Hints:
With about 210 residues, the protein is α/β, with parallel strands linked by helices. The protein contains six helices and nine strands, in the order βββαββαβαααβαββ. The protein has helices at about 45-55, 75-85, 105-115, 120-130, 145-155, 175-190, and strands at about 5-10, 30, 35-40, 60-65, 70, 90, 160-165, 195-200, 210-214. The chain has a five-stranded parallel beta sheet, sandwiched between helices. Strands 2-1-4-5 form a four-stranded antiparallel beta sheet, covered by helices on one side. The longest helix is centred in the C-terminal third of the chain and has 18 residues, at about 175-190.
Amino acid sequence: MEKINFQNVLPQVFQQHHDLTSEVWLQNIHFEKGHLYLVEAESGRGKSTFCSYIVGYRNDYTGAVCFDNENIAHFDMARWTDLRQHHISYLFQELRLFPELTAWENVLVKNNLTHFQTETTLKTWFQQLGIADKMQTRAAHMSFGQQQRVAMIRALAQPFDFILVDEPISHLDDTNAAIMADIMMTEAHRQGAGIIVTSIGKHMNIHYEKTFQL
């Protein structure tokens, strides 16, 4: 997949907002593979909604979202399964780790399906992110910031053309945020992938090629 297009998209919840000002909603914009984007928004402007449209979890909008000029409204579940396994990786704002599983098990749940990363690579990322000592700790017993790092490792345990990360460093200090950004950028570059970061304030300090105000 080379391109994601938003064509005059407007969430149904905003259809009565006649004074809506946005660089995303009701615009024709695109995101290209291999490039780096930031989508900034105030709370309640539809940031997580935007993410849900890209990964196909919601379709309550007018307009069209297209992947390589194909309208995603026509995709069946088999197509979405393939897209989520091989083309789009998503780091949820709420993370969605399995609380009863350890940090390592949460990552292996995906990597055992994709067989994409070596265990050496995964363990190296745990070490770099300062959570190697938490690998056998259940996610429920980890801080939110620690869980964010686990969720990033899990998101990188698959092939992707685009990686979508929703508020990925909200609970991280600057040092760990920089390390996470470097790991993500290195892996995305290795795969030739595009990166879409969303933020309502604090965001990764990287060189975005385009910023959209949601």
